[in-house]
Design a protein that fits this description.
single chain, mainly alpha, 9 helices
Length: 228
């Protein structure tokens, strides 16, 4: 089967199946966390200031920052979706290397930095605190189920990273001025929001293809060891 078609079918199946898992909606904020952290990280790398980050129950978020106008502002607006996709790819890469604990620790570290330094607001602080505690429990109290928990997070983040950019494409067609980062980039560059949304979507698909490649490679390796 064509690898791109296989990627699309797997993403569609993941999007459908994860919705039947109890409380899965709460974990969809993980992609938002990575997205907003991407904006914050690039802001800091470009000598800007992160004022605060907000996470909302509807899986949206916003990062308030102070950065010089021009190229730096463009890079900050560019950062969210690609870095969320790259974080998802990293989770699958670590899974293929049998380093799931590192994936959970990295995700927890990001959550801790955001909680201590930037997130102010009831839901965001509660969600980040709960996520950190649950990861700690998986690492130290329930290691036998941590693999399934890790894969749940990895697939949920992968699916959300692609679906988020797909929704952005739709928004950039129907209401371009409200298309989030694509709308910001359109104002900063004069290029249409739909172009930026499509670039985000294509990059997320490329990361998904690579991520699933790591997953299938690891599963083949495990099955081969079991057959020996």
């Amino acid at each position: 089967m064509n690898k791109w078609l296989k990627t699309l079918l797997f993403l569609a199946g993941s999007a459908l199946l994860t919705r039947f898992i109890p409380f899965s909606s709460l974990f969809r904020n993980l992609d938002t966390m990575f997205h907003e952290f991407g904006h914050a990280l690039v802001t800091l790398l470009l000598s800007g200031s992160v004022l605060r980050i907000e996470l909302y129950p509807d899986h949206s978020g916003v990062t308030y920052s102070a950065i010089a106008a021009g190229g730096r502002a463009i890079l900050v607006s560019l950062a969210g979706y690609p870095l969320a996709s790259l974080f998802s790819l990293l989770l699958f890469y670590l899974y293929s290397r049998d380093k799931r604990q590192w994936g959970l620790m990295i995700a927890s570290g990001v959550a801790l930095v955001m909680l201590v330094l930037y997130v102010r607001g009831g839901f965001g602080m509660i969600w980040l605190s709960g996520f950190i505690l649950l990861n700690a429990a998986m690492l130290f109290l329930w290691p036998k189920v941590s693999k399934y928990y890790y894969l749940f997070l990895a697939f949920l983040t992968l699916e959300e990273s692609v679906m988020g950019t797909l929704f952005l494409v739709t928004a950039s067609v129907l209401t371009p001025s409200r298309a989030g980062d694509a709308a910001n980039l359109a104002r900063l560059t004069q290029l249409p929001a739909i172009l930026w949304a499509l670039l985000f979507f294509l990059f997320s698909l490329l990361c998904a293809k690579w991520a699933l490649g790591f997953f299938f490679r690891e599963e083949k390796s495990v099955n081969r060891e079991r057959s020996l």
